[in-house]
Every structure is written in structure tokens, then in C-alpha cells.
Design brief:
The protein has 583 residues and is an all-alpha fold. Helix content is 68%, strand content 1%. It is built from 22 helices and two strands. Strands 1-2 form a two-stranded antiparallel ribbon. The model has no long low-confidence stretch (mean pLDDT 81).
């Protein structure tokens, strides 16, 4: 059976399961819609949290970034994994004991201020929309390649599915849908990794295959072979880094503390019955997340090695079918600069600026870039986001494995998108309307506003998916930076520093958010030509700007706090109570 038919069957089955769960777990009250009635068992919550956290960036894009960046790509692994440990140990139990629905709820009550609540709502919306752009981009890529529709149509299909089970089921429906999505995505990620590990190293455990010798009889280790090929092509050693140590530290720190401040992850710890269950579900989630994250470097290395062996210095007319398929949706392109009919894949850009495919087809039928870089010998453009999805085809695995990976990529993107959309809806309906603008509305009216907010959020998310501001993992990294610079400091000080008051919290959040977003927007959109280490502040790239914003947030919040009156005694007593994680 061909790939497209199998994809329709497997994806159709998974979508039917998600919709059936949403109907079964339909939310009837605001408590169900926001926090699943506090009745989710720890293991189920751990699986849902893992699915919520392992987004399209983790499943689709992270291994692709490591494939191209080598050692430097490890910052995504270290930052996101370390951040989850930080969240589980330092924040989850205390926030759960506080007992509110959302992070803006915590900020508003802890800092006894609707102004603080409003700033927190703005931060939550800003972060969530930035993050959801990456998920919609991932959905569009998957649909456009394997269901043979354009990326816009793929995003629209994904929007429809998410809209259905997010609006109908709320947190209750999303939670149990995410349990199913975790099972799909982890199975889809591991099966091809195990297949390829056996084929390339003879070892069925991908994590061990990463450090094994190749099964081609050469006796060479996987990474040694990859280092040699990369050096021959002018890319430099795969295991060597090009980023400065300080910039790497800043990016990892931003990803770590950004994880701990992400609103859609934090809200998951409000869905369990007890504080102990919050800690337990965080532990389950960490183990479940580690399965994918310890496999990702292996998948990245296998994909890179297979790619080089398959397309470098190969006649274009002899390229395999997968190459032409990805060309058809403009995620691979080639221009024969030296007119030898062969693909020269070497260091350097294949194009100037953003790729432009309007030149159509060349004499060999290849997809052309009309803005090809004449200064570089590199003739091949590859979108980093395709590496995990194309890996089974490059390795010539069975068609059902390819279709399974498609279902896994969609599960990863849709699970996180649903969680983010719920954060957006609760921020608007609960924190904005119920707590501030319309305090006398009934539960039924609040539920209606929440569902309306989801509908509007889906439309905005779809726009960002069709017009994404970068690679999936990079877009998500920016969201983590924004979370690091806005939420993390005021949550940490809100729990562990009783003297922190509303004036300090508001000033810190505004400072961190404005600085980080301005830093990213300037270097990525206003003046991308200046996006070099020589122009960065303290040598920190835009991906690490969240660390700088976080430090500024801490400094400003503490300074303003010391210059203004302390919080009321009842607030200090409340903080004393939630710091005892029991009950």
C-alpha cells in the first residue's frame, strides 16, 4: 500500500480517537473546562503533560536542528530537559497548593492587584501565540507533504481538529486526548529510530547505537564517520561547536527557566486531586519525556549521515523519490551552479536571504531558487524541519513506518496547540472577564466566553501557522525566552520572597517582556543584517535574550520592591502557607 493511502488510514484512525475522547470527556462546568475538575490521576496527568510539553518543536524540529547544528543543537536538549526538572522541583507543588486555575490567577491574588493580573494576562497571550505559531507551522508541513495539500490547507485542517476537541472538552477533553497523543507520538518517534539503529549499527537501542560502530564493516564509530564527512564537505566537525560558551549558557538558561514559566505546562498541575499528585505526575512526565529526548541526538545523527550519503555529489536525475516529493512543496531546492548535473552539498548558503522558489523548474526538472547565492559553492537548500519526517524515507523503511511518523508529528503539534489555546481562552474568560470586567457573570456565561476565546485564538494561530516567523524550534525558543523574562522571576519571588509586592512584580514583568521582545524583533525582523555576535549585547544571540530579560526582571522587581511598601500581612501569611507542600 502506498504512503499516502496508509497516511490517510493511520491519521484518520488517530483523529477519530481524539474526537471520540473529546465527545466522551465533554466539559460541563468551568471547573471541568479549566482544570478537568481536579480529578486526573497522576500517571494520566504525567502522560498528558509529556504530550503537552513535547510539541512539534520536540518531535519535528529539534532533531533537525541538531542534524544541522551538531554540538550547538544540544542546547535545546539541555535547556528543555533541565527546565522540566526545575519546574517539577521548585514550582509545581507550590502552585498546585495555591489552587487557582491559571498563572495570571496566581499573579493577581499573590500580588493583590488587577493591574498585575492584566500584565500577566498580556504576557500569557503573548507567549502562547508565539508558541502556537510553531505548532501550526508543524501541522502545515506534515499535511502538505504527506496528504498532498498546500501548507495553508494543512494548517486549516489542523485548526479544525484542534478547535473541535478544545472547544468541546476544555481541559478535561484535552487531558485525555493528550494521553492518547502521547502514546501515538512516542511510538511514532521510537519505531523508526529502532529500525535505523539496527540497520546502521546493529544495535536495537538507539541511545546505545549513538555510541556504536557502524555495521558497514568499516569499524568506524557513528560520530567519527559523521565528523569526517562533515569536514570533507566544509561544514566543520559535527561534534564541534561554533557558538560561544556564554551564548550557549544564555540560551540553555532561557530555555530552562522558560520551561518553568510556560503557562500551558504549569496549569497541568492544577488538574490533579492533591499536591502530592502534582509532584508525582511531574516525575512521571520527566521519565516519559526522557524517552524521546535521549533518542533525539541519535535520530539527528542518523538522518544527517543518511542525507549526506544519499544526495551529496549525486546526479540529480538519480535522486530518490522522497527528494522530489519534498521539492514539490518547496522544502528542498537545488540550483546547478557549476552545470555538472550533480548536487554539490557543501558549506555555505544555497541562497541569499529567504529562499524564493518563483523561478520554477530548471533543465533537469529541479526546483529552482531564483535568489541563489553565487558566492557559495553550496547548491542545495534543505528546510531543517523536514529531517525527522523525511528520515524514514531516506533510510528506505516500510511505508507504514513513514505514515506512523506523520501521525506522531501531528499528535505532537496538536497536543501542544490545544494546551496553548486553552491557556488563551482561560486567560481571557476567567482572568479578564470573570475576575475584572464582568465579575457577576454565571458559570454558563463564563464557559461560553471561554469557548468563544478558543475560536478566535484558533483563527489567529492559523494565521501565524501560514505566515511563520522562523523554523519551528526557533519560534518555540523565542516563546521560552519570553516566558523566562516575564513569568519565571515573579513566580519564583512570589513563592520564595514574602517581601515582593505588586509594584515590583508589575515593573519586573513589563521590563522583562519589553526588553526580550524588542531584542528578538530588532535582530530577527527589523534589522536581520545586524544579527551577528559583534552586534549582540554581551554576545548573547536573540535565542538567549530571555536570560538577559530575566536578570533585568529580577533586578527591577527587587529594586522597586525595596522602594515601595511591603505586601499586606494576609498575603505574607498566604505565602507562608503555600510554601509547605502538603495537604
Amino acid at each position: 500500500m502506498d504512503i499516502q493511502t496508509l497516511t490517510y488510514i493511520i491519521v484518520g484512525i488517530t483523529f477519530a480517537i481524539y474526537i471520540a475522547i473529546a465527545i466522551w470527556a465533554k466539559a460541563g462546568t468551568t471547573d471541568d473546562f479549566y482544570v478537568a475538575g481536579h480529578h486526573v490521576p497522576p500517571l494520566a496527568n504525567g502522560m498528558a503533560t509529556a504530550a503537552d510539553w513535547m510539541s512539534a518543536a520536540s518531535f519535528i524540529s529539534m532533531a533537525g536542528l541538531i542534524s544541522f547544528m551538531g554540538r550547538d543543537g544540544s542546547m535545546y536538549l539541555m535547556g528543555w530537559t533541565g527546565g522540566y526538572v526545575l519546574l517539577a522541583l521548585l514550582l509545581a507543588p507550590y502552585l498546585r497548593k495555591f489552587g487557582q486555575f491559571t498563572v495570571p490567577d496566581f499573579v493577581g491574588d499573590r500580588y493583590y492587584s488587577n493591574a498585575a493580573r492584566t500584565v500577566a494576562v498580556i504576557c500569557a497571550l503573548f507567549i502562547s501565540f508565539t508558541y502556537v505559531a510553531g505548532q501550526m507551522r508543524g501541522v502545515g508541513i506534515v499535511f502538505s507533504r504527506f496528504l498532498e495539500v498546500d501548507i495553508t490547507m494543512g494548517v486549516l485542517i489542523g485548526m479544525s481538529i484542534v478547535f473541535f476537541y478544545a472547544v468541546l472538552g476544555g481541559m478535561k477533553g484535552i487531558t485525555y486526548t493528550q494521553v492518547a497523543q502521547y502514546c501515538v507520538l512516542i511510538f511514532a518517534f521510537m519505531v523508526p529510530a529502532i529500525f535505523i539503529s539496527i540497520m546502521m549499527t546493529g544495535n536495537p537501542v538507539p541511545q546505545l547505537g549513538f555510541g556504536s560502530t557502524l555495521a558497514d564493516g568499516s569499524g568506524a564509530y557513528l560520530l567519527d564517520k559523521l565528523n569526517g564527512l562533515s569536514t570533507e564537505l566544509g561544514f566543520g566537525r559535527y561534534t564541534d561547536g561554533r557558538k560561544s560558551t556564554f551564548d550557549m549558557f544564555a540560551i540553555v538558561a532561557a530555555l530552562m527557566v522558560g520551561t518553568a514559566g510556560l503557562p500551558h505546562v504549569i496549569v497541568r498541575f492544577f488538574t490533579v486531586p492533591k499536591v502530592r499528585d502534582a509532584r508525582l505526575s511531574a516525575g512521571y512526565a520527566l521519565v516519559l519525556i526522557a524517552i524521546l529526548y535521549t533518542t533525539a541526538p541519535t535520530v539527528a545523527s542518523f538522518a544527517r549521515l543518511n542525507l549526506i550519503n544519499t544526495v551529496s555529489n549525486v546526479e540529480y536525475t538519480q535522486t530518490p523519490a522522497w527528494f522530489k516529493n519534498w521539492e514539490a512543496i518547496d522544502l528542498i531546492a537545488w540550483r546547478d551552479k557549476n552545470h555538472d548535473g550533480k548536487i554539490q552539498y557543501t558549506a555555505g548558503n544555497a541562497f541569499d536571504g529567504n529562499p524564493d522558489f518563483t523561478d520554477g523548474r530548471g533543465v533537469n526538472g529541479e526546483r529552482l531558487l531564483n535568489n541563489a547565492d553565487g558566492k557559495s559553492a553550496n547548491e542545495l537548500y534543505i528546510d531543517q524541519d523536514i529531517m525527522v519526517l523525511a528520515n524514514p524515507e531516506i533510510a528506505m523503511l516500510p511505508n507504514w513506518v513513514v505514515a506512523l511518523v506523520v501521525a506522531g508529528g501531528l499528535a505532537a503539534a496538536l497536543s501542544t496547540a490545544a494546551g496553548l489555546l486553552l491557556v488563551i481562552s482561560t486567560s481571557v474568560a476567567h482572568d479578564l472577564f470573570k475576575k475584572m470586567l464582568l465579575p457577576n457573570i454565571t458559570d454558563k456565561q463564563e464557559l461560553m466566553y471561554a469557548r468563544m476565546a478558543v475560536a478566535i485564538a484558533v483563527l489567529i494561530a492559523g494565521y501565524f501557522g501560514i505566515n511563520p516567523p522562523g523554523f519551528v524550534a526557533q519560534v518555540v525558543a523565542f516563546a521560552f525566552g519570553l516566558a523566562a523574562s516575564s513569568f519565571f522571576p515573579i513566580i519564583m519571588m512570589g513563592i520564595f520572597y514574602k517581601r515582593m509586592n505588586k509594584e515590583g512584580a508589575i515593573a519586573g514583568m513589563i521590563t522583562g517582556l519589553i526588553f526580550t521582545s524588542a531584542y528578538i524583533i530588532y535582530f530577527k525582523f527589523i534589522n536581520p543584517g545586524a544579527n551577528t555576535a559583534d552586534n549582540w549585547w554581551l554576545g548573547v544571540s536573540p535565542e538567549g535574550a530571555g536570560t538577559l530579560g530575566m536578570v533585568l526582571n529580577f533586578i527591577v522587581a527587587y529594586t522597586v520592591c525595596k522602594m515601595t511598601p511591603p505586601p499586606p500581612q494576609n498575603v505574607q501569611d498566604m505565602i507562608e502557607r503555600i510554601r509547605i507542600p502538603r495537604g
